[in-house]
Amino acid sequence: xxxxxxxxxxxxxxxxxxxxxxxxxxxxxxxxxxxxxxxxxxxxxxxxxxxxxxxxxxxxxxxxxxxxxxxxxxxxxxxxxxxxxxxxxxxxxxxxxxxxxxxxxxxxxxxxxxxxxxxxxxxxxxxxxxxxxxxxxxxxxxxxxxxxxxxxxxxxxxxxxxxxxxxxxxxxxxxxxxxxxxxxxxxxxxxxxxxxxxxxxxxxxxxxxxxxxxxxxxxxxxxxxxxxxxxxxxxxxxxxxx
Length: 242
Known about the structure:
Elements: E1 2-12, H1 19-27, H2 46-49, H3 54-67, E2 75-78, H4 84-95, H5 102-108, H6 112-121, E3 127-130, H7 136-149, E4 155-161, E5 179-197, H8 212-221, E6 226-231, E7 234-240
Parallel strand pairs: 2-3, 2-4
Antiparallel strand pairs: 1-5, 4-5, 5-7, 6-7
Helix pairs in contact: 1-8, 4-5
């Protein structure tokens, strides 16, 4: 079991950017139109903004305000699928025997976002990029808790997913729309997270209507005190103590 506080949080999806937006969505969750909308990252220089994909823009839009006025802030970045649109473009160029763009390749790797974050913020603290399965949020919290336990005063956790290209639809069905969730974690006991094992008989289907990061966001927005998340042989138990 680990304990921690959520000092602040921010989230973004098309048409959903404020706490009030998310509270309304959490009470009546529905699909949103992905479209081409991207979050405002006008706080970044224009030259750098042009290089950012929507996935990176989402991560920066939720993370940057949480990191404001904080130096030496470790970062845990979590995405199950990562830069699928960039990867698909690279594969399409390969299939068409077109030359590959070094910039596209360098920005498609899974730790590209934390690399850009480090450069643009001048941040040299520990940073980790995770590609877990359906319980990536929980793995990210455990990673952040380890950083807190080794002396970090706060850790920024960002979970984000981009809508995959249509060609991936038969294999990627857990991204209903683009979204990003940022949590600023500090030491404390407002929240606790524990893990228990499920026997084969206890295991059920792993698909749910919403990714767990969005289900957890609903719990945050509606002041829900407890939440369970089964994933394969693991059962994650969330408890709000205050």
